[in-house]
Every structure is written in C-alpha cells, then in structure tokens.
Design brief:
The complex is a heterodimer of chains A (416) and B (638). Chain A has 416 residues and is an all-alpha fold. Chain A has one domain. Helix content of chain A is 60%, strand content 0%. Chain B is mostly helical and 638 residues long. The chains are: A mainly alpha (416), B mainly alpha (638).
Chain lengths: 416, 638
C-alpha cells in the first residue's frame, strides 16, 4: 500500500463532500477515509493498466530474451498482481466498513438492503473462485502438453519420430486451447467417446472392452483432464453468477453517494470485475455471453478510469476470440496457441535431416514455448493458492460482517 | 519384468547397474530370507532377463553396422506388428511381452549408439537413426495404449462393503427443523452413527496386483526413453477417472456454495451425513490405496510418484473441502448440531491420514485445507451448540400445552442430547474453555465418575437447566394450578427417563438424578394437595357447618368437576400414570369409604350418588387424555 500523502490526490478536491445522515460522528475523519480509499483503488488499477516499468511492446518474433513484459495484462504474473490488488482493496474496505463503527449503523436502511446484497455477491464470488482454481488445473494440463512438445523438439539430432511426437502433442494443445469450456470439459476424459458434449456427467463405465481409443490415436488427451463435466455444481454457470452479481449493482445517488454506500459500491464493482477477469483468463464452467455484458461503472467516476480501461482491453480481446472459441485469454495461453500453430507448420514441412534455416527458426520458437512453460510452472500453482486465499478472505469478511449484524440485532432487539 | 533402464548400455549406466546390484544384495541379506511372492517373482524375472542380457552385450560389441541394421529391422517388424493389433500385449503372454520390450530395447540401443557416435556418419546410418526415432515413437504410443487398457481392465474397487451408503439415511426426529417443533408430532427415533463399520479398514488393491509388474515395466521403459511425461499423463488421466467413478458410486454430488446455502434442511442433512462418510472412506481407504499404487508403480521415480498422486487426487479433495467450507457458511441452526459434530469429528479424525497422504511441500495446500476446514467446523460446532441452548431458552409458547403432557421441546431436546454422549471427547475438547453455570456442585470421590464433571457434562446439564426454566415459563400459562404440576411432573419424569435409559446417565450423574426424581415426586404431592385437599376436606368429620347430605352432594359435584377436566389431561408414561392412579385412589377412595362407612345410614342411600367402586373406577379414567368429557354415568367401566 502506498503512503497516504501522494501526489496523485489532485482529483480529491473535485469530489463534493456533503454531510448526510450516513456520516457519523467522526464525519471528517470518515470522509477522509473514503476519499483515500477511492484514491487507492484508482492508484492500484492504474498501475495494473500500465505498469511503471513496462517496456515498449516487444516484437513478437523477437524471441526469449524480450518475450513481452512479464506483467503484461492477463499474463499469469499480472493475474497474480490483480489478486494482490484485490486483497489490499478488500482489507482496506473492511476497515472502513467495520472498524470503530456502531454496529446498529449498518443494519439500518439503506444498509439493510445493501449489506445483504453485498454478502450475496460474495457467496457467488466464492463459487467462481472454486471454478477458476479448477480452470487453472486445465491450464496446467496445457502446460504439460507443451512441455512434451518442447522436449521432443529439443532432441538432437531431430528425427522424424521426435517431430511426430511433438506434432501429436501440439495438435492436442491447439485444439484444447481453442475449445470453449463446454466441449473442453467433457472431451477431457480422453478414453471414451471423444467429443462428448453432454452437460451431464458422462461416465464411461462400459469401457472395459473398448479400451482407450483416444489414447491410442492421440496419446495425450484432447482438452482437459477433468472427467467431470462440472467442477462447481450441477448446472452452475459462471455467466449466470456474474450477471446476478452485477444486476443490483448501481452507483449510489444523492445523499448516499457521499457516505458508506459509495465504498460498498466500489468494492462490489471491484469484486465483480476481478471475478469477471478470472473467468475470462482460464477455462471456466459455462461462461457464454460474458464477453459483452459486464456493466461497467460510469466513466465519470475517477476511481474507475483505469478499471474501465482494463475492462475495455480484455473485453475487446474476448469478443475477438469468442467467435472462434478460446479456452481462456491468459496471455501465456494466447502465445502458446500461436506458437503451437507455427510449430505444427514446421512439423508438417519437416524432412529428415532438418534444413538449417527452418530448424533455427523452430529452435527459437521452441525456446519461447519452453520459457512459457517455465513461467507457468513457477506461477500457476501460486496463482491457484492466491485464489484460495481470496476465497478464504471473502469467507472471513463475510463472517465478520455477519457477526456485527448479529450484534446489531441484539442491541436493537427489545429487552425481554 | 526387469528394469528397462538398467539394460541400456550407455557409458556411465554400467556403474549404476553395479551400484543397484550392490543395493539389492545388501537388502536381500537384511531381509532374512523372507521374500514375499511379488518380490520373488521380480527377482526371477530379473534372472531371465540377465540371461538374454549377456548375449546382447557381446553381440553389440562384436558386430558391425550391417548386423545392427538387421536386428533393427527385426525389432521394427515386431513393433509394427503391435501397432495395429488392438489386443493387450499382456494377454499375449509373458514371452510376447518380453519380446516387445526386447525390440524396444534394440531400437533404443540404436538411438543411443548413434548419439554417442562422432558427428560424421554415413547417410545410411542416419536413415537408420531416423527410422529408429519413428519406431520408438510408435512403440511408446503403443505402450501408452497398453497402459490405459491394462489400468482399465484390471481396475478394482475398494471393498464393496465400504461402498454401501447407509440406507438408514434419515433420523426422523432430527430431520425436523427446530423451528417447526411446536406444530409437529414428534416421533422418537434412535440414531446411530452410521459409520462405525468403517473402522478397521485396510488398504485396498485398486489394480489387480498380478499386473503391477507389467505396468511397472511399461513405466520403466517409457521413462528410460524419455517418455515419462506421457506415461504420467496417461496414468493420471485413467486413475483420476477411476476416482471420479468411485465418487459417483458413493453418490457424492458436487454443490456450489450458492446451492448449499439455499438447500432445504432435509436435503442438506443427507448431504452432510454423506460427506462425513465419504471424506473418511476417501482419505483413509481410497487415497491411501491410490498412493500405495503410485508408489508401487512409480516408486523408482519418487518425485513423479508423488506428483502423479497429487494430480489424481487434487480435484476430488478440493471438491470435498469446498462442500465443507460451504456448509460452514450457513448460519448455525440448532438442528445442525449433531451433523456439525459428526462432520467436525470426521474432519479431525482424518487429519493424521491427510498429513500422511500429503507430507511435503507440494501437497501442503491440500493438507492445510483440511486443517483449516477442521478448525472452521470446530467453530461452527461450538457456535451451534451455544445456539442450540439459546434456541431452547427462547422457544416461547403463547398457549398452554394441551393436556399437560410432554412438551415437544422436551422430547426434542432430550432425544437430541441422547445423541451427544457418543461425541463426549470431541465435545470436551470444544467446550473446555467455555464457562458454564452448573446446577450440581462439583465433587470428587470414589463413587463419582470423572465424566460427571467433564465439560460436556456441565454443558449438557446447563442445557437441561435452560430447558427447565423454559418449562417453568410454559407452566405459568396454565390457569389450573393442578395441571401446572402435572405438566411439570410429566416433563421432569421424561427427562429423568431419558437420562436414565441412555449413556447420558454417566454424564448427568447420580446427584442430578436424585434431585430430578425428587422434583417430579414433589410435583405429584403438589398435585394431590392442589386437586384433592379441598375436596377431601368435605369428607372430614370435624366439618360441621353443613349437613352430611349436603357435604356428600358437594363432594360428588367437586369429583365430577375433577373428572370432567382431568380425564382430558395426559400422563403418557403408563407407569407414572399407574402410580398416580394408585396414590390418588388410596387417598380419595379411603377417605370416601371412611366417610360413607361412618355416615351412609344418616345420609340415606338415595342421596349417595357414587359408590366406592364408582369412585375407584372413575379415578382410573383420569390422565387418559380422553377426547371429550364422558357422560358420567356411562363412563363406568372395568
């Protein structure tokens, strides 16, 4: 977290401060806190939108050394930063909401409506966390396919057999990367029916004699390793949850805009946004339509500028990809797909012994792919753990809020 | 099957073989000649391979390129012959399998030989190398298929008895939610923890042990040829599916947090019960066996063995954790106490198993997940316990309970408490730091069981005290003083019976029992005084204000009133009812008989409405909870 006094605070003056019924005794202190909160949100997302140390976008063909800035939007590093940002915002928000506050205050209107709505959103976010943790498992599967291809193509001298093996892995990889979640999930079982698109769990008990046809054809599996078609629950849909989280999310108006409803609105917006980004990044159970429909906060809100900026970037990318299908927008996956296609091209044209030029350009691509795998190896599991951490944090905060509400209930209940 | 690795004649490898043999010899010495069948088989396989090994080794050294080429062609033919053959190599017999591995070995030799050659090689040699890479890939793909087929075909499940999900499924009383109590007729049911028979499990063979050497040979071959990743991918995929299938057989469905929070109590109850069972079976039996399988097959590649195990189990573990976490999100309803207790107990019980399953860094998040969940469930359980007490304290009624019988609240609470002694240890640990007021002063002594003053005992007594206060308040709702006593008597008697007839007696202790028996006996006395003392006073001789005839008439009128109201009262316990009948009868009939004996002549027979036998018979109708007042005359029976 940055120190409170900061040179970016100039917009603070423009926020009109009005006294109203929601502002309690420590009116000025509270106003200050609220403004600081907004400023921190703005700062954090600005940094996410354009990291201070960002290099000029590197040439795609420019290989390992300059392989894009590691914290480019949607890269795994960036996603981890996003999780940190979320945790910081959340901690600060909770302090504003609960610290030193009279419990009865958040049980009175309009909070009797706003607080339950917020808690409801947090429950939905929990399920999204679960789905995303699962989705990252799929990404780890892609990583392993890529590693197989890399290992095969690194063989020297490169023989037809190595290329054959790499091509098989790459073919599985690019198919998996371009599949939308629905197909992705049930195709993953591998053994059985291949392109099984049922939404119910499809158990392949009758496999005993059939053997594993897909395995014999393809070696590694198409799609994910997930053999259940839902990771969260029957008929659960990320898209529906995100929509439901966003439906009653409207900026506070009038008197409310200067009080506690404002940070509540901000935090909820951040929550919905972060969950939306996660579902965009990795395979996630049922997310159709999410590319287009995420209500964003009004543009005139200062704290929201960078968040809107990020949203637009991701949204544009998503819309492009949605048509041809994509397992996720994680930057590494996108690059993996591109490299996968061009290495397949190389493999298709390969004749033993390798021609020097072709081999050299392939070497560079293989090195880049290896670099992506390395980064995934380093960062995917920590990302998973951060998301679990987010999960636990949301649970804790919810419990603390409920506790305060219960206290408030006791205080306001008539003494028998 | 012999170690494929050790057959590869690459410089440096020989030393490894040498060292490995040393180890084997040492280990054999240490084993005191006690070899199990598997090991014995392994060693004899090794022996048979050694015999071929010698021949190969000399030939490689002695022959020229053309001979290598010849042998490679043979090997290629063999490998290709299996490429299209869909049946299992294993089923073609051991020697067939051996020949396949031998062919693979030839191919591998060519590859390794070529790699160690100086850069300048002939076109012909290069071609052979290239063909060898292809042959190797074909063989590896074939082995991958073989691996999947064998794993499917020889898959076994954990013992069927673990599979049976209890059909008991429901406890009638405890499916009731606490709030619906007042209107419901409560059927008593005994409950058992349904997982007793899980105790004493053993690891199961998840794959037929007879095919393990074959699978191991595949693993060794694939790892030696740098296809270890492909092996792991296929292995994980098939085993993960087997686990999913097992979960499906256990009927463990996945629910989102949103689902769990919305769930009706009866559905949730069943799901919680199932979870408690499944989490034990999965961690203590299934995953323990799975880990053993991974070690048996991939033990030589230790890190791989563990990585595979985690990949196989992770998804299922996370789904179990997430149900537990979702349940802990619910506000604690008092009726969830026992379910929470058993979930908590289950989660605490498996912690050691989980620690063993995931001992190191890679699995730490799964291990931590369970520890955190267990803590969370402990909190929820304690909170629910306290909530249970609050709920009893605040379960107010606005109308008097009809007939003065045993209130549903008493039934519910006492039957619920009966479930808790099974969890005494767990409860002790949860409640030890929570102070509570006890109705019995703490004592020690030879005849006092320590359990009587355990945290659980104190808290249970305190719950019953809360119940008692609540009943006192309910009793105040009766307009009729006597009915108040009957109500209290019934309920206290019920409490005593429930304590006496269950494990609760050791917790509640003798002193509690004595006090409470005295309490309801006192209610009996109070009742008799309040109902009968004024009525019987009419029969006493010293009362000379009115005439005998008038007193007799007044007595019968008063008796009618008592009869009319008290036949509708209820004393559900037959013994208690009998006792009450007898003691009432003794007092009333004796007084009446005495009165008539002394005064019948003076009153005149036609003014005596009831004979002694009438009174005696009619008294038997009291507390029978009759639907409407009987017409007095016709009611004489027995």
């Amino acid at each position: 977290m940055r120190p409170a006094q900061d040179n970016q605070g100039s917009f603070l003056g423009r926020i009109s401060i009005r006294r109203n019924q929601f502002v309690d005794v420590n009116n000025e202190q509270e106003q200050e806190d609220l403004e600081l909160f907004q400023k921190h949100i703005a700062d954090r997302f600005t940094e996410l939108l354009s990291p201070p140390s960002q290099q000029p976008p590197s040439d795609e063909t420019n290989t390992v050394a300059s392989v894009a800035a590691t914290d480019q939007i949607m890269s795994v590093t960036w996603l981890r930063k996003l999780m940190d940002v979320f945790l910081c915002c959340e901690a600060e928000f909770k302090a504003i909401l609960l610290m030193g506050r009279d419990p009865t205050q958040i049980s009175k209107p309009p909070f009797d409506r706003l607080v339950p709505e917020m808690l409801d959103r947090s429950i939905k976010a929990l399920d999204i966390c679960t789905a995303v943790v699962n989705g990252i498992d799929s990404v780890r599967h892609y990583q392993r396919l890529a590693e197989i291809a890399v290992a095969a193509l690194e063989q020297r001298p490169l023989g037809d057999g190595n290329v054959r093996r790499a091509k098989r892995a790459l073919a599985n990889l690019v198919v998996a990367l371009s599949l939308e979640d629905k197909e992705n999930v049930s195709g993953g079982g591998g053994g059985g029916g291949g392109g099984n698109k049922t939404t119910e769990r499809s158990w392949s008990f009758g496999r005993r004699s059939g053997g594993s046809s897909a395995a014999s054809k393809g070696g590694a599996t198409i799609g994910q390793l997930k053999s259940s078609s839902w990771s969260v629950g029957r008929n659960w849909s990320a898209a529906k949850q995100i929509h439901a989280m966003a439906t009653n999310l409207t900026p506070p108006r009038g008197n409310e805009a200067a009080g506690l409803p404002q940070p509540m609105f901000i935090m909820s917006t951040v929550l919905v946004f972060v969950m939306w980004v996660l579902t965009a990044a990795v395979p996630c159970q049922e997310r159709s339509g999410l590319a287009n429909h995420l209500p964003v906060p009004p543009k005139h809100l200062n704290w929201a500028q960078s968040l809107i900026g990020i949203h637009e970037k991701i949204g544009d990318e998503w819309k492009k990809k949605e048509k041809k299908g994509s397992a996720g927008l994680m930057e590494e996956m996108t690059r993996m797909e591109k490299l996968g296609h061009s290495l397949i091209e190389f493999a298709d044209g390969f004749h033993y012994p390798a021609e020097k030029d072709a081999a050299e350009s392939a070497t560079a691509q293989v090195a880049e792919m290896a670099e992506i795998c390395r980064r995934m190896e380093e960062e995917l599991v920590p990302l998973q753990q951060q998301i679990r951490e987010v999960f636990h944090r949301i649970v804790r905060s919810r419990a603390e809020i409920l506790e305060v509400l219960e206290q408030a209930g006791k205080l306001s209940a008539p003494v028998v | 099957m012999a170690e494929f690795e050790s057959m590869i004649p690459v410089p440096g490898v020989k030393n490894h073989v040498f060292e490995a043999c040393h180890h084997v010899v040492k280990a054999l010495r240490a084993s005191d000649n006690n070899l199990d069948a598997n090991l014995r088989k392994l060693l004899s396989d090794l022996e048979s391979h050694l015999s071929t090994f010698g021949i190969v080794d000399t030939k490689v050294e002695d022959t020229g390129f053309s001979e290598i080429q010849e042998r490679f062609k043979e090997a290629l033919k063999r490998i290709l012959s299996w490429e299209t053959n869909q049946s299992m190599i294993l089923e073609a017999g051991l020697s067939e399998a051996d020949q396949f591995f031998q062919a693979l070995y030839e191919v591998h030799t060519v590859l390794m030989g070529f790699k160690s050659l100086p850069i300048k090689t002939s076109r012909k040699e290069k071609d052979v190398y290239n063909q060898a890479t292809v042959a190797l890939d074909i063989a590896m793909l074939r082995l991958e298929k073989e691996l999947c087929d064998v794993l499917y075909q020889y898959k076994q499940h954990a013992q069927p008895e673990y599979l049976a999900v209890s059909s008991r499924g429901k406890d009638i009383v405890y499916d009731e939610s606490f709030v619906s109590l007042d209107d419901e007729v409560v059927i008593e049911a005994s409950s058992h923890k349904d997982d007793e028979h899980i105790a004493g499990f053993q690891n199961a063979d998840l794959v037929d042990p007879s095919v393990l050497p074959h699978i191991k040979a595949i693993a060794n071959a694939m790892f030696a040829c740098e296809y270890g990743r492909a092996f792991c991918e296929a292995f994980i995929r098939v085993r993960r599916e087997a686990l999913d299938e097992y979960m499906f057989t256990l009927e463990m469905e996945r629910f989102s947090c949103v689902d769990v929070l919305k769930m009706e109590w009866d559905v949730l109850n069943v799901a919680m019960r199932k979870w408690t069972r499944v989490v034990k079976i999965i961690t203590q039996i299934y995953l323990a066996s799975e880990k053993q399988l991974c070690e048996q097959i991939l033990g030589d590649f230790e890190s791989k063995s563990f990585a595979c195990f985690i990949e196989i189990s992770k998804d299922t573990i996370l789904s179990l954790l997430s149900f537990g976490e979702a349940v802990a999100l619910r506000s604690c309803q008092p009726e969830m106490l026992e379910r929470f207790l058993s979930m908590y107990e289950g989660s605490a019980e498996i912690l050691l198993d989980v620690d063993n399953l995931f001992p190191d860094e890679t699995g730490s998040f799964l291990r931590m997940g369970f520890h955190e969940l267990s803590k969370k469930l402990a909190d929820r359980t304690t909170a629910t316990f306290l909530k249970f007490k609050d709920a009893i304290a605040s379960a107010e009624s606005s109308r008097p309970f009809p007939g003065g019988g045993i209130h549903h609240l008493t039934r519910y609470v006492m039957n619920y408490l009966k479930l808790l002694p099974e969890y005494t240890d767990t409860l002790n640990s949860l409640l030890q730091n929570i102070n509570v007021e006890d109705s019995i002063p703490e004592k020690t002594g030879q005849d006092i069981r320590p359990s009587t003053f355990s945290p659980t005992a104190k808290h249970l007594r305190s719950i019953v005290s809360v119940l008692e206060s609540n009943l006192e308040r309910k009793a105040q709702l009766y307009a009729d003083e006597s009915l108040k006593f009957i109500f209290m008597m019934n309920n206290f008697h019920y409490m005593v019976q429930k304590v006496k007839g269950s494990e609760l007696k050791h917790l509640f202790g003798d002193e509690w029992m004595r006090k409470h028996i005295a309490r309801y006996q006192h209610n009996v006395t109070d009742y008799e005084r309040s109902t009968w003392s004024s009525t019987l006073a009419l029969l006493r001789d010293n009362n000379s204000v009115s005439t005998l005839r008038e007193r007799c008439r007044l007595f019968c009128l008063a008796f009618d009133d008592v009869y009319k109201s008290q036949t509708r009262w209820s004393v559900p316990d037959p013994e208690l009812r009998d006792d009450l009948h007898i003691s009432t009868s003794v007092k009333v009939v004796q007084s009446y008989r005495g009165f008539l004996g002394r005064n019948a002549a003076r009153i005149g027979e036609k003014h005596i409405r009831y004979k002694c036998e009438d009174i005696e018979n009619m008294l038997l109708d009291l507390f029978e909870c009759l639907p409407s007042p009987r017409s007095l005359r016709s009611s004489r029976r027995r």
